[in-house]
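User: Hi! I'm working on a homework problem where we have to compare a predicted structure to a textbook description. Could you give me the structure for the chain below?
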Amino acid sequence: MNLIKHSNRLASISAAAAALGCVGAVQAADGTLGTGITIRPYGLARLDIVKDIDDGTGGGSASNIPAIAPDGSVQANRKGAYTMTARASRIGVDAQGQTPAGPLQILIEGDFYGVGAGNEVSTNSGTLRLRHAYGQLGPIMAGQYWTNAADIASAPEFLDFTAPVGTPNGIRQPQLRYTVESGPNFFAAALENPEGDFNGANNATFVAANQGISNNIQDKWPDVTARYAYQQSWGRFSVAGVARYISVDTGGATVNGFNGKDGTVGYGLMLTNVINTFGKDRFIWMAVGGDGIGRYIQYSAASGGGAAIVNGKLETIKAYAANASYQHYWSDKLRSTAYYGWSRWDNPTPLVQAGLVRELRQAYVNLVYLPIPKSEAKMGVEYVVGNVNFASQTPPNENQGKGSRINMSFQYPF
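Assistant: Happy to help. Predicted structure tokens:
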């Protein structure tokens, strides 16, 4: 833990904390609080440059593979979009230290992908958006962080702002987590915020001072997750699972011909393996699958989610995903990752509307330059290609689409 040694650094900490809504009393010139906790501001400035080829990968500054236009459509003729953004820049405050009750960490982090800001005509503004906000005392963590169902430590490197096809969805959500670590062994179990994601669900947007209320989702129980990981010099292996209750209550309205209430149980399993090969090189594979796993697979919303109303009942949808990647170090300052990912949803066509996704594929290869030793400052270029297969489309649109783009990214952390 780096101590804060200068008063001007303390001022910057207080300003960053105020911006994130976590103002605290900084009492000593070395950055310690009266409780012996040290605080550290951190973040990064990032620029993303995107050039679409063909009809791109869903448009915008981040890839969205399910949004690739179907072949034969008018939208598929919109090619070559170009954009630049700094909204992926981040700012955070991290407080850590020992207490009589055990080690304590409090972390709050945001980026600038919030909505309701400016536009590209003049300001290019971006509002601060909450990413993480949690406290952990000993083995108990409470707050918002990556879902326990995803082993973030095993993620492959990509420059795109959005995680690729074939991965567990790195959901950021409120949770209560218990963690045990012993040598190379790691185990965590958590109760996490639920959100129904059946086909036709009204996933309400947050509003001021409230979560937002859906008119047809009625979450009744938390999602339950558990994850075990084992790490040694050869690499890392993890297995995780999720169990969830998905429910619908239309409140007198009609959703896909259904009026009433029903519920069903969904589950999923995630396997991840990192294998160190030669030097710093590593091979990573992941496999994900389940019945009603829904939003715990990347891009599941485009498939209709974790369940659908079939013959007057809420039925789970089976889904599967897998990926493999290899990272090679050309030198201490230059590395590349090659990746391929695949996802599939067995949605009950033709009982769901046209345009829902049946299958996705994505591949990318990048080249990343590390200009500063022992720092995550980096700049790189990445080529991305994606393919989407729809459950059905209305002619002349075809049931598939493809797109590609080039990403460039410059990232300077502090």
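For your comparison, note the following. The chain has a mean pLDDT of 87. Helices lie at 7-19. Good luck with the assignment!
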